[in-house]
Amino acid sequence: MRGNVYCGPGRRSWDEVPDPQITDEADAIIRVTATTVCGTDLHILRGDVPSVRQGRVLGHEAVGIVEQVGDGVRTIGPGDRVLVSCVSACGGCRFCREGHPGLCLGGGGWVLGHTLDGMQAEFGKVPFADTSTYQVPAGVTDEEALILADTMPTGYEVGVLKAGVQPGDVVVVVGAGPVGLAAIMGARLFSPSHVVAIDHADRRLEAAKQFGADVIVNNSVTDPLPVVKALTGRLGADVVIEAVGEPDTFELAVRLTRPGARIANVGVHGKPAVLHLEDQWTRDITVTTGLVDTYSIPMLLRLLASQQIETSRFVTHRFDLEDIGQAYDVVSRASETGALKVLLTK
Amino acid sequence: MRGNVYCGPGRRSWDEVPDPQITDEADAIIRVTATTVCGTDLHILRGDVPSVRQGRVLGHEAVGIVEQVGDGVRTIGPGDRVLVSCVSACGGCRFCREGHPGLCLGGGGWVLGHTLDGMQAEFGKVPFADTSTYQVPAGVTDEEALILADTMPTGYEVGVLKAGVQPGDVVVVVGAGPVGLAAIMGARLFSPSHVVAIDHADRRLEAAKQFGADVIVNNSVTDPLPVVKALTGRLGADVVIEAVGEPDTFELAVRLTRPGARIANVGVHGKPAVLHLEDQWTRDITVTTGLVDTYSIPMLLRLLASQQIETSRFVTHRFDLEDIGQAYDVVSRASETGALKVLLTK
Amino acid sequence: MRGNVYCGPGRRSWDEVPDPQITDEADAIIRVTATTVCGTDLHILRGDVPSVRQGRVLGHEAVGIVEQVGDGVRTIGPGDRVLVSCVSACGGCRFCREGHPGLCLGGGGWVLGHTLDGMQAEFGKVPFADTSTYQVPAGVTDEEALILADTMPTGYEVGVLKAGVQPGDVVVVVGAGPVGLAAIMGARLFSPSHVVAIDHADRRLEAAKQFGADVIVNNSVTDPLPVVKALTGRLGADVVIEAVGEPDTFELAVRLTRPGARIANVGVHGKPAVLHLEDQWTRDITVTTGLVDTYSIPMLLRLLASQQIETSRFVTHRFDLEDIGQAYDVVSRASETGALKVLLTK
Amino acid sequence: MRGNVYCGPGRRSWDEVPDPQITDEADAIIRVTATTVCGTDLHILRGDVPSVRQGRVLGHEAVGIVEQVGDGVRTIGPGDRVLVSCVSACGGCRFCREGHPGLCLGGGGWVLGHTLDGMQAEFGKVPFADTSTYQVPAGVTDEEALILADTMPTGYEVGVLKAGVQPGDVVVVVGAGPVGLAAIMGARLFSPSHVVAIDHADRRLEAAKQFGADVIVNNSVTDPLPVVKALTGRLGADVVIEAVGEPDTFELAVRLTRPGARIANVGVHGKPAVLHLEDQWTRDITVTTGLVDTYSIPMLLRLLASQQIETSRFVTHRFDLEDIGQAYDVVSRASETGALKVLLTK
Predict the structure, then answer these.
(1) Which residues of B touch D (CB under 8 A)?
(2) How far is C100 from chain B (nearest CA, A)?
(3) What ipTM, to 2 d.p.?
(4) Using CA atoms, how far apart are residues A231 and A196, in angstroms rounded to an integer?
């Protein structure tokens, strides 16, 4: 079959690779019908993720048709249309049993397109298939479901739920890329009084409005602090979600809070940040971090099936899977192209 | 001044009564600009609430202008426009400090129009004014705020929050009177996948649709159980809110649940109900009861100010305060008149 | 091999039965080194549990040595000493993934000694072995671990955790049988100010004292209400755990509460109970039911390993497995013999 | 009367000062029978707290007898023995009503011995007396209650409760001064499997053992990381409580955690700390800060009354109030004198 192979820093190619084979009772082989490119894939391509070796088929997000399953797989079978989670769950370790497969100790976690071959290919193998794939209900399209493989659960679980968004809150989301937009869409599920989006790109801020932000601030030209203070009786935001991953934006996130606020970090950080404990030690704040577990996928599928969320809104560009090179190009120039999620279909 | 006086079972009159006087440092006198009639007032009139004595001015819901305050009142003053909570909070007892003034041990709780003169009058006295009234923000009308005195917090706190409604839930509300409708409106704040309203009056079910129910069942003609099963993969509802107050509807509420569900009783009961522990002991259900505390008023005011809820939708009839007799008449024939909340203004 | 076979109402025998065989990738065969008799086994013997067919090997609690595992079993292997949970977990269904295998939809739940052959035998087969057995740490005896198969998690999860026992609470436990005692021991983990045990047998009340009750009430001679009122400033108990399973004791449990209290039902009920909603609708109470999930086993093993709980205290009688007839006799006359848990070893 | 007056950096004196006077309806005058010196008082003396002006009577912890109350005070009266909380609560602002008077917006918070005259004096005035004092139950001594004015609630609320200590947890407390010891004592209320105390003073570590630590590490000679790893199957601590207030100890606290852990900062920080988000962003950690609210005082009084905690253990030195100079000396040389809390009585 053909797949998108990582060939070392700066290089990838759409290449002939061996077909995946069932090697464990819990494996499933999926014929990929929809996949996409994640910001993490660009990091890998830049050589920032040394645990990804040359020759690896990339990609950790897919919808497809089950082709074959191992003897131990009970809940899916050939012909089923399934969503593949970006996180695989062994199902038996302490963290999986506590609902946190993102921390899996039994061989799962983020492995697809990382330590195992991934989903940007004609076929992909999913380990621990019973606990790592989800039947897609009739009436939900591949495109809608695909956004639930990673983007939407990340914004929702690591942002909205960890921050404990409540009705009436003033929620600030710093960074309006795909995950920031997912946090905005997810925050709206809890009826905050205001959602403020902060970014330095107007194009992203326009997208933020479409996703549910009612206040937008371009922080390359406007200081967001007075804006937030004005909305909150001078107190500061109830909740801030950091979705950039820079020391500066993390410190901004903390600065925008009211006493008693929650700050959920969703951004991928490469450097340490400063926590101003000399100011914050009395302020009763809570800071959280985390990797997505995707435990929210079944619930998000229910919301899709009942038309309470519209995830196809994330898809800005569509390509045939074979044209994945163009997809990478569009995503890597997102500030120009306005790309959020690209859809690759076969 | 004039007020609506309870004259014993079956009798009330719009009468001359003494002006209220400040008798405690924490009192405030309010000039009533908007009040309404509650289902509880009808119970009182029927003689069902013996703790209400003849001569009592009725009413526990109001918006008005502060006329005068006691020396100990810090947060409101003459001229302020305030919402009067149906529950007064001493602010110092164990339950008030834990956020439950509905259980106040220090002289508060439901006292207005009950053990103290109430708000269906030109003026009313509010005890513990600092913790029992709320400034109404500019941009929120009297009518919108009035619904937050009792109806909306009751459906929201005792129904939605105690039941722990979560995104994606299938929520059933049994009873589509004002409080049931408040529960429906409140449940929608958490983005359930479906809200099912059950009532035996089609007129109320039509209202339920306006308030956010997407499925309605007239249980005098249709068994709701198969409807709920069909929506939930045969499991049953995640959440049921009982807003009628009859043994039958309580038992129905329990019967509609999935294993692991929460049942919040909001209905006012006059008789015991049967809890089928022989079926339920293994089913991991949670049943809650409660009186409103109105701790959610500040949050609901923020939602009103940011136009996230539309409480004026509850107001079906409008009268001059002096025509309160007509208001009682309309409310007492609600099934005919379709009355939800009547607005009485001065 | 030999096992304890149910032969229809009133009859059981220690009989030759076929050795269990691996029939599923997820199965494990355990050589039983310690098992016990549960109150539920007596119910089965009386014919109260029709889903148990004649010929069934009884027993759902065991510690043993893994003899053989199916190809799909990853976390245990031959020679390992494991605790077998009374609840089997498929690990993949909605309820298992949410931490509630007691409600398993995938073939688990309470199946051992019920719909599948159980553990009162020389060997037993455990389905879904990865998620239904636990390695016993060195330093924890078989006897100590055995109590964690059912008794202790039931009192702890369905009683203590569902009731939300908090430091300083006044906790009442109605019924001082094995599960009531487990609730007392479990409640003490949260440092309540008082634990009141209620029973009509003085012998059980003496045991309750050993397990952590500081106040005991024989309710065949003393009304517990004034006792509880005196301990709580006339308010009533913060938490009541019902561990009997009769309509009367459930109603007593509700009557002993303060406003705002939580009542956790652990008792096995055969009849409906009355819930006095006419009194309780304003009292802000929470009533819970449930079957044990055993999610607390890993934590309880940590407490055993660090000597924070002493579960061997439950074992009042010890027999050789072949003398299981005597064990049933002792347990069935518990009020005379003072039996709590019997230990059967091989 | 006489009181302990701050006379600018480095200087204090036991001096004649005017008797406190009721100036607000909510005030109470207390005749101080027991007070103490807090680490914060030493900070003030060093000039580190510029909001404390010269001439201020210091002290924010006291037990005493009510001498006189303002007209608006309802719950205490002359002759009552009361505990004065270190935090005053206006009772009406958003944060007070949400249970967080440490963030009071209405004139409370930490004001005693800070912006108002305090309790190291023969008499002290308490604002908002109804919500800022607590009746001491018979059977609880002044000395036992005094520790509940600040030390014990700080360790319990800001450390133990914010960190969410659960049964079976491995809890690490960094810093074994009075507040660290309160965190250890408070953590034991939830039955952790192990409590590890870390300090660089052996004398403090010996105290930590008395307060409930079962493992002690002198981190000037031993790296605590391998110790914690050995206790936790190489995962790291479930909970870490930072009770020092230095950048290094905060970073150590984060480093000792397992994925999914909670870190509660209790230490008073004067400098920023580094949060290593480049390592922590995936690790699902929660960091909290906070000032004590003292909402736990009523519960802690219940625990004292039922002899579940022994707070007199904190008192290492006793003086007559007039000898407060000696008390300051002993506390300021705590590493030499082993002083935890000094008791000053009159």
Answers:
(1) 25-26, 71-72, 74-75, 90-94, 97-99, 106, 130-131, 295, 298
(2) 9
(3) 0.97
(4) 10
Number of CB atoms found within 10 A of residue B184's CB: 28
| Partner residue facing D25 (CB), from B71, B98, B295 | B71
Burial of D225-261, coded b for 16+ CB within 10 Å and e otherwise, reads: eebbeebbeebbbbbbbbbbbbbebbbbbbbbbbbbb
Q: Residue A335's pLDDT is what?
A: 87
List A315's β-bridge partners, or say none.
A341
Strand positions, DSSP E, chain A:
2-6, 12-16, 28-35, 62-69, 81-84, 123-126, 133-135, 170-174, 194-199, 215-218, 237-242, 257-265, 273-275, 286-288, 315-320, 341-345
Nearest to C279 by CA among B270, A335, D191, D148: B270
What number of helices (H) and strands (E) belong to chain A? 14, 16
| Residues of D at the A interface, defined by Cβ within 8 angstroms | 95, 98, 100, 102-103, 162, 245, 247, 250, 259-260, 265, 267-278, 280-291
Q: What is the pLDDT of residues B49-72, one digit of tens each?
A: 999 999 999 999 999 999 999 999
Residue of C nearest to A89 (CA): C92
Answer yes or no: do D267 and A276 touch at CB < 8 A. Answer: no
Put simply, the answer to whether C91 touches A92 (Cβ < 8 Å) is yes
CB contact under 8 A, D277 and A288: no
Nearest to D298 among B25, B91, B94 (CB): B94
Q: Looking at beta carbons, which residues of chain A come within 8 Å of C91?
A: 91-92, 130-131
Residues composing chain D: 346
Q: In terms of DSSP bridges, do strands B28-35 and B341-345 run parallel, antiparallel, or are they unpaired?
A: antiparallel
Pairwise CA distance, residues A127 & D64, whole Å:
67
CB A152, CB A313: distance < 8 Å: no
Whether residue A103 and residue D259 make contact (CB cut-off 8 A), yes or no, is yes
- Match 């009639």 to its residue by tokens: B37
Q: Which subunits have 3 or more CB–CB pairs within 8 Å of chain C?
A: A, B, D
* CB contact at 8 A, C23 and C112: no
Return the bridge partners of C286, or none.
Answer: B288, C262
Question: Token pair for residue A324?
Answer: 């994945």
Residue-wise pLDDT for D7-37, tens only, equals: 999 999 999 999 999 999 999 999 999 999 9
Mean pLDDT of chain B: 97
Q: Which of A25, A90, A298 sits opposite C71 (nearest CB)?
A: A25
Percent of chain B exceeding pLDDT 90 equals 99
Is the CB of C190 less than 8 angstroms away from the CB of D168? no
Partners of B125 in beta bridges: B29
DSSP state letters, B33-81: EEE---HHHHHHHTT--TTSPTT-B----EEEEEEEE-TT--S--TT-E
First and final C-alpha spacing in chain B: 13
Contacts of C72 in chain A (CB under 8 A): 25-26, 71-72
Query: Contact, D199 vs D176, CB < 8 A?
Result: yes
Distance, in angstroms, between B128 CA and closest chain D CA? 10
CA distance D138 to C246: 39
Contact C273 B274 (CB under 8 A): yes
Predicted confidence (pLDDT) at residue D326 exceeds the cutoff of 90: yes
DSSP A81-140: EEEEPSSB--SSSHHHHTT-GGG-SSS-BS-BTTTB--SSBSEEEESSHHHHEEEPPTT-
CA nearest neighbour of D30 among D88, D104, D108, D115: D88
Chain B residues close to C100, C-beta within 8 Å:
259-260, 284
User: Average pLDDT, stretch B256-266?
Assistant: 98
Chain B contact probe: residue of A166, A189, A304 with most B CBs at under 10 A: A189
Confidence at residue C335, expressed as pLDDT on a 0 to 100 scale: 87
